[in-house]
């Protein structure tokens, strides 16, 4: 599939008076225009970028009707994708990236790094390759105070995705840019009222089963996203943090015997949305299902990562349901409850987070009211694989001492 076109952003300035633009859009929003006005900060960002909201906002592409349509769209669009991860050609010491940064701060031992003093828009290709390597190693990298247009975010995503980003046919998007810039914005959802009423303090995540919202994006795809970039342009003053957990470190929490048990197994992963079934029109809505390795090897680091998430991993191939439920419950708990392998991020307006969707789960803390608006670009990666010769992160880095996962004597 050919790379999608990326438009160039107009020059930026720091201060814009958006009052006239806002008044004009408010008039349009009163008509049946499909325009929901975004927050002021977002409007200012869009005005700088020359994004026209007058024909409607957000943009919703048509939703596929049948589960077969979704499967076909995903597989035909991807073909036999050969993905070259930009991190594979990076200088291991990352001199171009680190040399230009004011500060590089690891946020925890196992996951998360913040880079200070760089604008993502200005990165050279060499720095982008090194950023990919850093994300591959640290699982997530943060940049505050970004002057980032959606166009530049899209272009960076296309680069990191080796020409391809996920265009999410059925979710809200930024209009007019060829697709692929999706919105994290509850107020702009078509099903907003339903979504809002389903969520409250006691049940923040809309799920039938007990859920803490932990998930990995788009795992039902044949080539799920790798590098995923969320830029939050509007955030509440307090609350709405996002948490990520490291799949490398979750894997290293397991005993050698447990690792051996799950290495090479395949999991069954379901989509977030449901669709009608052409072959069973009366059978109700169904998920798209996909089989992927439960432990995957990262093509840049060569390290193994646990690749399960409570929201979308529904079984293990070859195991009875009771067996697979028991194994998955243990793995989800290790992943979700080990606070020492997680990073919790407090957003400020204009912050970008780029994470590796191949080695993490994430969730939001729903302890906020007010507006939270962000744009997300998901770069497609390789077909997930397990290489039996690959090693864990702790083995590769020869991490010593208490981080080495030493076995403690059992007391029976
Ligand atoms: Fe997500």
Brief write-up:
The chain has helices spanning 19-30, 40-49, 67-78, 95-100, 125-138, 150-160, 192-198, 247-252, 256-262, 321-337, 393-397, and strands spanning 103-106, 113-116, 140-143, 182-184, 225-234, 242-246, 266-275, 286-293, 295-297, 304-306, 313-316, 342-345, 351-356, 360-364, 373-380. With 412 residues, the protein is of the alpha+beta class.
Overview of this protein structure:
The protein contains 11 helices and 15 strands. The protein is α+β, with helices and mostly antiparallel strands and about 400 residues long. The chain has one domain (about 30-400): Double-stranded beta-helix (4-Layer Sandwich). The strands form 4 sheets. It has a 7-stranded mixed β-sheet. A 3-stranded antiparallel β-sheet has the order 12-6-14. It has a 3-stranded antiparallel β-sheet with strand order 8-7-11. Strand 1 and strand 2 form a beta hairpin. The longest helix has 17 residues, at about 320-335. The chain is globular, with a radius of gyration of 21 Å. It starts with 18 loop residues before the first helix and ends in a 15-residue tail after the last helix. The model is unreliable at about 1-15 (pLDDT under 50). The structure holds fe (ii) ion.
């Amino acid at each position: 599939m050919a790379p999608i076109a990326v438009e160039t952003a107009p020059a930026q300035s720091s201060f814009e008076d958006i009052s006239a633009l806002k008044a004009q859009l408010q008039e349009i929003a009163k008509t049946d225009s499909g325009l929901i006005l975004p927050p002021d900060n977002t409007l200012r960002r869009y005005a700088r970028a020359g994004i026209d909201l007058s024909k409607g906002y957000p943009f919703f592409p048509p939703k596929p009707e049948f589960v077969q349509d979704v499967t076909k769209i995903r597989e035909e669009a991807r073909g036999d994708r050969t993905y070259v991860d930009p991190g594979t050609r990076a200088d291991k010491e990352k001199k171009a990236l680190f040399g230009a940064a004011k500060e590089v701060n690891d946020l925890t031992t196992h996951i998360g790094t913040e880079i200070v003093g760089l604008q993502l828009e200005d990165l050279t290709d060499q720095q982008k390759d090194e950023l990919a390597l850093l994300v591959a190693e640290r699982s997530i990298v943060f940049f505050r105070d970004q002057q980032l247009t959606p166009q530049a975010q899209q272009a960076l995503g296309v680069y990191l995705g080796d020409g391809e980003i996920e265009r999410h046919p059925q979710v809200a998007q930024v209009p007019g840019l060829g697709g692929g810039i999706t919105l994290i914005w509850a107020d702009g959802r078509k099903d907003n009222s339903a979504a809002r009423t389903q969520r409250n303090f006691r049940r923040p995540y809309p799920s039938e089963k007990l859920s803490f919202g932990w998930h990995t994006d788009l795992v039902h795809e044949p080539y799920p996203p790798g590098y995923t970039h969320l830029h939050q342009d509007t955030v509440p003053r307090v609350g709405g943090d996002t948490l990520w957990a490291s799949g490398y470190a979750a894997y290293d929490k397991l005993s050698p015997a447990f690792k051996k048990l799950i290495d090479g197994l395949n999991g069954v992963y379901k989509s977030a949305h449901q669709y009608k079934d052409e072959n069973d029109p009366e059978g109700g809505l169904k998920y798209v299902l996909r089989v992927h390795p439960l432990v995957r090897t990262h093509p840049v680091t060569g390290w193994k990562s646990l690749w399960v998430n409570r929201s979308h991993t529904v079984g293990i191939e070859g195991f009875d349901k009771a067996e697979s439920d028991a194994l998955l419950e243990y793995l989800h708990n290790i992943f979700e409850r080990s606070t020492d392998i997680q990073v919790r991020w407090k957003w400020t307006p204009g912050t970008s987070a780029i994470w590796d969707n191949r080695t993490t789960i994430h969730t939001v803390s729903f302890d906020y009211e007010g507006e939270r608006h962000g744009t997300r670009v998901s770069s497609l990666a390789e077909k997930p694989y397990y290489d039996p010769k690959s090693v864990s992160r702790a083995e590769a880095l020869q991490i010593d001492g208490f981080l080495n996962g030493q076995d403690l004597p059992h007391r029976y």
